[in-house]
Amino acid sequence: MKVVAATFLKSATAAAEYPPPTLPEVAFLGRSNVGKSSLINSLLGMRGLARTSQTPGRTQLINFFEINRELRFVDLPGYGYARVPQAVRERWRPMIEGYLNRRSALALCVLIVDARLEPQPLDLTMYEWLAAMSRRFCVVATKADKLSRSQLLSRLSALRAVYGPGVLPYSALTRAGAEQVWEVIHAAIAA
Ligand code: GTP
Ligand code: MG
């Protein structure tokens, strides 16, 4: 897709604040600091659209972005960061689950994992939950630029053994993998 216009639409916590479900949505989820916002920016070729940070827990609301008046990207707050205050963490679960469970416009979930790490317990929980919900989803292994080619290949086979053969390597730094992720997005919104 040629991204002509991508704009921040709004932030929300509860369903009443979501924009009307008039366009297909692609939701990005993963552990805190894994690189969700960076993936969104690099897919769109727009630095700084979704706010990124070295501090985990940067994204605390559900943020909606609109692309070409054709589809929306939804940046979800990350899960699993211990240093985020308990009160904030308790708000996340209903916020994320509420969106994933009930959003009619949701066409694809992109579960983002760290290419350098073994499958993490919370990622596995999220993966199993997505599979059980029978939502269309894919798994993207980001920060691939931090690995050598041979390290990446061995990590990918370990991740694919758990998450299935469709795991896509990605780098927000180099945009390697962007075309493949867009292909999956196109297939989902055309379905
Ligand atoms: P929260 O909103 O806090 O949950 O984090 P997030 O998942 O949105 O992560 P974010 O995109 O803010 O990125 C976290 C940190 O990882 C930032 O310092 C990014 O620059 C870095 N980062 C993200 N993706 C990549 C990547 O593909 N390669 C490299 N080298 N760094 C990355
Ligand atoms: Mg973020």
Automatic annotation (TrEMBL):
InterPro entries: G_ENGB_dom, GTP-bd, GTP-bd_ribosome_bio_YsxC, P-loop_NTPase
UniProt keywords, alphabetically: Cell cycle, Cell division, GTP-binding, Magnesium, Metal-binding, Nucleotide-binding, Septation
Domain EngB-type G: 22-191
Keyword Transcription on entry: no
One CC-aspect GO term: cytosol
CDD domains in UniProt: YihA_EngB (cd01876)
Co-factor(s): Mg(2+)
One GO BP annotation of this record: division septum assembly
UniProt-recorded Gene Ontology molecular function terms: GTP binding; metal ion binding
Similarity annotation: Belongs to the TRAFAC class TrmE-Era-EngA-EngB-Septin-like GTPase superfamily. EngB GTPase family.
HAMAP family: GTPase_EngB
Entries under PANTHER family matching the protein: ENGB-TYPE G DOMAIN-CONTAINING PROTEIN (PTHR11649:SF13), MSS1/TRME-RELATED GTP-BINDING PROTEIN (PTHR11649)
Job description of the protein: Necessary for normal cell division and for the maintenance of normal septation.
Name of this chain's protein: Probable GTP-binding protein EngB
Biological source species: Chloracidobacterium thermophilum (strain B)
Lineage: Bacteria, Pseudomonadati, Acidobacteriota, Terriglobia, Terriglobales
Gene: engB
